[in-house]
Design brief:
Length: 511
């Protein structure tokens, strides 16, 4: 089909779209409302204002849930996905021995993320505990190897220069002393407390926050290394507070069989609506419609809808042409929103020597070596083989791994892991890695605010532009979590479902 002619008039925001007026930036990631939590089992509910034609850009979880919920209400959707798979940054790598897999992206679900768990229940996906804290996990710093239990019992063994009042305390104890008053505020006042917390601290990085709390440089290094946060020290402290006080690391779960079972479950309900290998390169708007231009290996096409929902990361959206330019505030948010780098390196081994030699059954190892963090898998009694997350890095550490070719990554990671587990080379079989900042379709692992970005950008991030709405973890305050993708997708779907201007259409032309 021929390209449509660009409209000479700027697209205006449909006033019939619910919540279309500019919204203030939210203070925290509020728990989903009872109405939202009911969506997985009951749908969006309420009468539609007419059947919509909706073009969804991206088949990550935000795009999939948007399309799924709209389709359930009788709307007509098409999902355009540039890759040959669905799931976005939920990416389960399966090119290993039978039964083995590894998570390149999202790998765990906090018990507090009840919306995510509701969709797992809807699709009858089996869950099992994801072990976060294991006292038998290791600390390998300055060439000395000990268990986490020993490091917590004798903090003086660790190579950090602390002030007198900081000595003899664990990193977690020090952190709790810094945020205990804020945790108490939230427990006493609920979500209302976050307005004051954001007012006080949104301008602070994590490093600046700890200096404000009179921590020594040694204590800052101690806390950052032991909690895998050294690459986060200059990001907004609000991100860390929101996760910690919001219990993001308490009672973690994983989907048994692989996290990609969730996007695959959505795809099972949407296989006729999803177009794979469809790369969007331009978005145009008319007063009463949206035209999304995309290309495949077969040619160039367009999809026309009453609305479009853009779920790709802003780091990718920057490269998509908007024929009718978005507002200045939106363009600024797209340019400035900070995205964090992350790289994972995994090993397939024929024997899980960490279980045999050290009794480590899940959990993690802390190290100052370039691999920085190791994660051990949930034990599997059916096989001796296993997958080791040999390196999980963020920020500058991740970018340095990402600058290497695959062979060099694996060899250097083997060198590091061999210092911690000397027998690893004897059991190593194959490895793989994924650097999210180098991924063409992600260009970053997740949104991560720099100081003041929540106050300055969040309102514009979520604001619709004419007939184009936005969803994705970056459009929620659950950055980096499945919950953020799902919550934002439901919000966009509900806005379209409750709009009142569109009469019955004839379907979405895909070609």
């Amino acid at each position: 089909m021929a390209e449509s002619e660009p409209n000479s008039q700027p697209a205006t925001l449909p006033q019939h779209l619910p919540d279309a007026s500019p919204q203030p930036a939210p203070d925290a990631a509020p728990p989903p409302s009872p109405e939202t939590l009911a969506v997985p089992q009951s749908g969006l509910g309420g009468p539609a204002g007419g059947s919509r034609r909706v073009v969804v850009i991206g088949a990550g979880l935000a795009g999939l849930v948007t399309a799924f919920e709209l389709k359930r209400q009788g709307h007509r959707v098409i999902v355009l996905e540039a890759q040959n798979r669905v799931g976005g940054r939920i990416h389960t790598m399966r090119g290993f021995a039978p039964g083995l897999y590894a998570e390149a992206g999202g790998m765990r679900i906090p018990r507090a993320h009840d919306l995510t768990l509701e969709y797992c229940r809807l699709f009858d996906l089996p869950l099992r505990p994801f072990v976060m804290n294991n006292p038998k996990g290791l600390v390998y710093l300055n060439g000395e190897r000990m268990t986490i239990e020993a490091a917590n019992a004798e903090p003086s063994r660790l190579p950090f220069e602390l002030a007198d009042h900081e000595r003899g305390r664990t990193a977690d104890d020090l952190w709790e002393s810094a945020i205990g008053d804020l945790r108490a505020m939230v427990e006493h006042e609920g979500q209302a407390a976050w307005a004051e917390i954001v007012r006080r601290y949104d301008q602070f990085s994590l490093y600046e926050f700890l200096r404000e709390k009179k921590w020594s440089e040694g204590a800052i290094e101690y806390y950052a290394v032991m909690n895998f946060l050294e690459a986060d020290m200059h990001n907004a402290v609000i991100e860390i507070l929101r996760e910690d006080i919001g219990k993001a690391y308490v009672d973690m779960q994983e989907i048994a069989g692989g996290m990609d079972l969730l996007p695959k479950a959505f795809f099972g309900e949407l296989h006729r609506e999803v177009r794979l290998g469809a790369e969007v390169f331009a978005i145009d708007q008319q007063p009463d419609s949206v035209v999304v231009h995309y290309k495949t290996e077969a040619g160039r096409y367009r999809a026309v809808g009453d609305y479009a929902v853009c779920t790709v990361p802003f780091s990718v959206l920057r490269t998509i042409e908007t024929v009718q330019p978005f507002s200045h505030e939106k363009r600024r948010a797209i340019r400035q929103l900070n995205y964090h780098a992350s790289t994972k390196i995994v090993f397939q081994v024929r024997e899980r020597i960490w279980e045999k030699h050290d009794g480590i059954l899940g959990g993690a190892t802390v190290t100052d070596l370039p691999v920085r963090r190791l994660n051990y898998p949930t034990p599997d009694p059916s096989t001796e083989r296993g997958m080791l997350l040999a390196s999980y890095t963020w920020g500058q550490d991740a970018l340095q791994w990402g600058a290497m070719d695959e062979e060099t990554r694996l060899e250097e990671a083997l060198d590091d892991v061999a210092r911690i587990h000397p027998g690893i080379r004897d059991v190593y079989e194959v490895g793989a890695s994924h650097a999210w900042y180098s991924d063409r379709w992600a260009r970053g692992a997740f949104a991560m605010f720099a100081p003041e970005q929540q106050t300055e950008l969040q309102g514009a991030i979520v604001q619709p532009e004419g007939r184009v709405l936005f969803a994705g973890e970056h459009c929620s305050l659950y950055h980096a979590w499945i919950q953020g993708a799902l919550e934002s997708g439901i919000r966009a779907a509900r806005q379209i479902h409750e709009a009142t201007d569109v009469a019955e259409g004839t379907g979405i032309p895909a070609t």
